[in-house]
Amino acid sequence: MKMALGFLTAILITCFAPVAYASDPSPLQDFCVAVNDSVAAVFVNGKICKNPNMVVANDFFFSGLNMPGNTSNPLGSRVTTVNVNQLPGLNTLGISLVRIDYASYGLNPPHTHPRATEILVVLEGTLYVGFVTSNPADPNQKNKLFAKYLNPGDAFVFPEGLIHFQFNVGHKNAIAFAGLSSQNPGVITIANAVFGSDPPINQAVLTKAFQVEKKVIDYLEAQFRWNIV
Ligand SMILES: *[C@@H]1O[C@H](CO)[C@@H](O)[C@H](O)[C@H]1NC(C)=O
Ligand SMILES: *[C@@H]1O[C@H](CO)[C@@H](O)[C@H](O)[C@H]1NC(C)=O
Questions:
Q1: Which atom in ligand 1 lies closest to the alpha carbon of residue 35?
Q2: Number of domains composing the chain
Q3: DSSP, residue by residue, 3-25
Q4: Are 157 and 109 contained in the same domain?
Q5: Mutation test of ligand 2: which of 70, 226, 227, 229 has the most ligand atoms closer than 8 Å to its C-beta?
Q6: Are residues 80 and 101 in the same domain?
Q7: CATH number at residue 164
Q8: Beta partners for residue 180, in sequence order
Q9: How far apart, in whole angstroms, are the C-alpha atoms of residue 84 and residue 152?
Q10: 150 and 214: one domain?
Q11: How far is the CA of 74 from the centre of ligand 2 (A)?
Q12: What is the pLDDT of residues 82-118, one digit of tens each?
C-alpha cells in the first residue's frame, strides 16, 4: 500500500511537473553552503559551495528575528532580510525570509522582487496590502489592483515580479514575516529605481514617461536621493 501510494505520488508529480517551476535552480546535492573564495575566481549562478566536510550547524542558522527593525526613516518601515547573504546554508535552496516592521502609518513602498513570489503573514497590526498585474494584452483593460486589509494571522501572496506594497493603517506598530521563493529575491523599489538612479536617468525620458514638467521630475528626484536598504 505504501509503495502504491509512493508510485501514485510519483506519477502525480510527473503530471504536474510542466506547470510547476521554481525561480532558483533545484539543488543537485543535499546542500551547498555558500562560502567566500577570493582565490578561486569561479563565477557560478549563485554562490560557491563550502566543502561539505567543513559545514557546521551554524551555516544553517540565523538569530535575531525577535528584534524589531529600525523604522526611523522617511517611509516608517524596515525590512530585515534572511537570504543567502545572511544565511549561507540557503544557497541553491530557492527560499528565503524577511521580517518587516512598520511604524504607525509606515509604508513598504511599491516594489517588485524580480526572482521571487512572496507570501506574507501579519503578526501584529493591520496592513493594507496589494499588488498590480502586468500590462493586459487587451488595450481596453487596465493593470488590475488586488488589495486587502490584513489582520494578525492573515496571509497574502504577491506573485513573482509584480509590483506590490504594504501600508500600516493603524496607530500602532505592525509586524509581518514573509517567505520568498528565492535564495536571493532581489528588490526593485519603483521610486528609487526611477527617480534615484546613479547617475540619474536623462530628464527627457522621465518628463515624457510620466507626462509632467521638468520641475516635477526635479522635485521627485530630490526625494529619492537616499538609500532605501
Ligand atoms: C564575504 O566577503 C565579503 C568581502 O570580503 C564580506 O564582506 C562578507 O562578510 C563575507 N561573507 C561571509 C559569509 O563570510
Ligand atoms: C534608528 O535609525 C536612526 C536613523 O538612522 C538613528 O538615528 C537611530 O539611532 C537608530 N536607532 C537605533 C535604536 O538604532
A1: 13
A2: 2
A3: HHHHHHHHHHHHHHTTT---SSP
A4: yes
A5: 70
A6: yes
A7: 2.60.120.10
A8: 96, 118
A9: 28
A10: no
A11: 12
A12: 999 999 999 999 999 999 999 999 999 999 999 999 9
Residues 42 and 78 in one domain: yes
Tens digits of residue pLDDT in 114-142: 999 999 999 999 999 999 999 999 999 99
In a domain? residue 4: no
> What is the C-alpha separation between 120 and 20, in angstroms, rounded?
21
User: How do residues 159-213 score in pLDDT, each as one tens digit?
Assistant: 999 999 999 999 999 999 999 999 999 999 999 999 999 999 999 999 999 999 9
Closest-CA residue to 172 (of 88, 87, 71, 92) = 71
* 3-state helix/strand/coil string of 89-101: HHCCCCCEEEEEE
Q: Are 54 and 48 in contact (CB under 8 A)?
A: no
Q: Is the pTM of this model over 0.90?
A: no
The answer to whether residues 146 and 160 belong to one domain is yes
The residue whose CA is least distant from atom 14 of ligand 2 is: 70
Residue 113, CA atoms < 13 Å, CB-side half-sphere: 29
Decide: 99 and 80 in contact? Cβ < 8 Å.
Answer: yes
Contacts of 207 (CB under 8 A, 6+ apart): 213, 214, 216, 217
> Domain of 207?
190-229
Q: Is 135 annotated as a binding residue?
A: no
Residues pairing with 78 in the sheet: 101
